[in-house]
Amino acid sequence: MVQSFSIDELAQVARPTLFDTASRPELLISLLYANLMSPSLWDIMRKIQHRMNESKHKSETDHITAFMEEIHNYVDKKFCHLSPFEVVENVGSVNIEDERKRISGTAVDDSINAILHVLHSFEKSGILTPKQNIIAMINHGEFPEYDYSIIDIIEALGSDFYCKHRPLGVTICADEATLIASLAIAGGYVEPMDVVILGSPVHYTLFLDHACECFWFNGKHEYHDSSSWKKLIKDFSANRCSHKDDTCDTMHPSMTNIGNTHWVRCPKLEDF
């Protein structure tokens, strides 16, 4: 028997929202596979491989590490990360009550509460910027329309956007996690089973596990292999995992190719 799906369920797979993914974290993995079917992704991969062919590396580990650095540098330089209000300006906003009706369960309220908790924490610490401060917007029942996208939509949204330059595309953290994972798989250095996306409605971060090395891509800007991680944690002598735990404190589900689980603090980087 062929299983039938509603239009809304199909839309969730094609372009899941922040609230869709809070309810069904596995939707991010569908974006990873959709990216791998996009000619745009393979065009990017050919550009990265061309840059790799221009340099020589002594060992397999050196080559893999250099490849991951090239992916990080390409995504960091070519794509522009949107702030909450830039999402509103370029995509739009949603009515929170409408989202509660559309998505069953507590996914919407749990997401809003987690986001407000972080925003109020930033506000108390004096680090909440005007571009991040959507507290009043939420209190008025509206929320930025965070849609997580495949590479083709990411590029289309960037065609009329300017940051420091005209970017190849515009992204948010979940886009960056799925895009980088897709590029790593397309390059042939990791398998889908090597991908772990850790996240919550507040933030998504990516871990890639390879036989020779482990890698952490935290959004566009932050990247670690074992060497850079060891250097970083020298400042956290009390607990070698404290930096990652602080960064990932609000995150709960871990999304993998074989299903979802819950965050166990410092699972792989403890071996760095």
Describe this entry's structure for a reader.
The structure is a single chain. This protein is an alpha+beta fold and 272 residues long. It has one domain. It is built from 13 helices and ten strands. Helix 3 packs across helix 11, helix 4 crosses helix 5 and helix 5 packs antiparallel against helix 11. The radius of gyration is 19 Å and the shape is globular. The termini are far apart.
Tell me the structural class. alpha+beta
Biggest sheet strand line-up: 8-7-6-5-9-10
Uncertain stretches of 5 or more adjacent residues: 242-248, 254-272
The best one-word shape is globular
Number of domains: 1
What is the average of the pLDDT values?
80
- What is the H-and-E element order? HHHHHEHEHHHEHEHEEEEHHEE
Largest sheet: 6 strands, antiparallel
Tell me the number of helical segments per DSSP (H or I, 4 or more residues long).
13
Roughly how much helix do the residues carry, as a percent range? 40-55%
Strand runs, count: 10
Q: Please compute the radius of gyration using only Cα atoms.
A: 19 Å
Beta-strand level of the residues, as a percent range?
5-15%
- Give the termini separation: 48 Å
Provide the descriptors you would attach to this structure in a database record.
272 residues, alpha+beta, six-stranded antiparallel sheet, 13 helices, globular
Blueprint of the fold:
Elements: H1 7-14, H2 18-23, H3 27-36, H4 39-53, H5 60-78, E1 79-81, H6 84-90, E2 93-95, H7 96-102, H8 107-125, H9 135-139, E3 142-144, H10 151-158, E4 169-171, H11 173-186, E5 195-199, E6 204-209, E7 214-218, E8 222-224, H12 226-232, H13 242-247, E9 253-256, E10 259-262
Parallel strand pairs: 1-4
Antiparallel strand pairs: 2-3, 5-6, 5-9, 6-7, 7-8, 9-10
